[in-house]
Task: structure prediction
Amino acid sequence: LAHHWPVTVCKMIANDCQDPPEYWTIHGLWYDHRLFNTKYIYELHYWPDVLHSSLNRTQFWKHEWDKHGTCAATLQVLNSQKKYFGKALELYKHIDLNRYINELGALFLIFQMTAIKEALTRFYGVTPKIQCLPPEEGEKAQTIGQIEFCFTKELQLRNCTALKGESDPMQADLKLGTEELSVCSDTLPTYYPSQVQDHK
Result:
């Protein structure tokens, strides 16, 4: 279950982002083709299309279903659009990342990725995958943009790391436009933007 920070996503590419949500939103529920039907979509204000706010939002949900939902549908618990979107929202509410990060508040102001990662691991009991934009030219801080929580096929939380001898399916980076998110560095300071800034 990938959460992304809308402000960082907007920073990644010139787009029509206007007033992005100021809370962590769903990017997707992905598994390591069926027709898309919007009648199964509900409560998806937690799953907005941050990059294309003025377009038909169902295109983003259709993309998530076509790319990830149809694979996830091999599991009984996710084998329909209604189950897929419903389960993603259920997991999102269960993780409650926004509430926990608000409680961490001061820790996020420290800008130390190791402290943030340790706090999330302690609270959730598993290690999430935290992704950042690398520092821009002349800057020293990476920008936090996405936090992924990994689950077993039984939808139990698990560490987002590969087992010994396995390739890591979670190493794929998110690329939008010319910039991309990658696993955050433990050694770089981390920037947590509160609002979209103008592009240069």
In short: The beta strands are 2-4, 25-28, 129-133, 142-148, 150-151, 157-158, 174-176, 179-183, 190-191. The radius of gyration is 17 Å. The helical segments are 6-12, 58-72, 81-95, 97-110, 113-124. Residues 163-173 have pLDDT under 50 and may be disordered.
